[in-house]
Amino acid sequence: MTVIAEATLSTFTPAKDRQYHDVDGAAYYLPADKEEADRLNAQYLLLKDIFGGNAIYAPVALSGDEWVLDNGTGTGAWIMDVRSAIPPSISMYGVDLQTRLVPLNPPSNTHFLQGSLLDLPRDWTDRFSLVNQRLLVAALSQDDWKKAVSEIYRVLKPGGWVQILEVSGRLFTPEGRTDGHADMFNNIAGKIRAGRGIVGDCFEDIPDLLRGQGFRNVAVVEERRVPMGNKHGQVGERMLRNIVSLYQGMKSPALDCGTVSSERDFDKVVDAFEARCNESGGIETRWYAFCAQKP
Ligand SMILES: C[S@@+](CC[C@H](N)C(=O)[O-])C[C@H]1O[C@@H](n2cnc3c(N)ncnc32)[C@H](O)[C@@H]1O
């Protein structure tokens, strides 16, 4: 693995109080700070509820001295949750561009490494029984997705499983209706991604990418459509809080690509979006879980 030097702060103008990272060649644009760690942890619990409580949904039974990898681990929330449900003899690895958000003193079978999921260690070939990868929607170009899937294939041992959870990079409105606030979000997020070559609807390509790489038993395990706002119960409220926090985290890259002219304008756009979701409901997020097996 190319071990990346200590991640530095972003070259784009950071919005007040937010920290981003800027690793050479990496397109990822969301913050890496305490606020984002809180958002990722809340999102982890929310998605666990939405997907029926299963952190491991690939049909894999882990035992003995097997290895498990979490690509783009973020705060390490998945690893720290899963390790309580599997034998302590299993070795857990989490890889991320930066490791600022992971637990400071992980248990002895748990290792967090700084590096890119596009270039995993050479000596990991055929090593892992399970690779988990979640929410790289703000990070990867089409070529990166191909590389990521080929690296996952390489590090899995024959018979090993990958599980991938993704979200559409767009928000959706009910069939045939447009909504200025959803359009604004999609426009801002779309411009940020376009400037960085990032694919927003990666979920559409994942099954073909997996099959093209040689995976078998490729399955879309679940699709979940989750509307936001206080008209949609607790899950709707939690989802709105999370998407509002995500939106706020897009402030610096949004200012940088000129979609809004000032921090104040951006804050107003996000406030109006939040009020709109609570007043009228109807704007939804779409989430997808896939799994596949290396023959
Ligand atoms: C939206 S967060 C999701 C974190 C975690 N998977 C979760 O579900 O909570 C995306 C993470 O991927 C990491 N990331 C982005 N590009 C990466 C790359 N090329 N290699 C490794 N990690 C990457 C980011 O630093 C960030 O922590």
From TrEMBL:
PROSITE patterns: UBIE_2
Domain Methyltransferase: start-end pairs: 68-160
Superkingdom as given in the UniProt entry: Eukaryota
Species of the source: Coniophora puteana (strain RWD-64-598) (Brown rot fungus)
Keyword flag S-adenosyl-L-methionine: yes
Alphabetical list of Pfam families matching this protein: Methyltransf_25
Keyword Glycosyltransferase: no
Keywords from the named record: Methyltransferase, S-adenosyl-L-methionine, Transferase
Gene Ontology BP terms: methylation
Gene Ontology molecular function: methyltransferase activity
Protein name: S-adenosyl-L-methionine-dependent methyltransferase
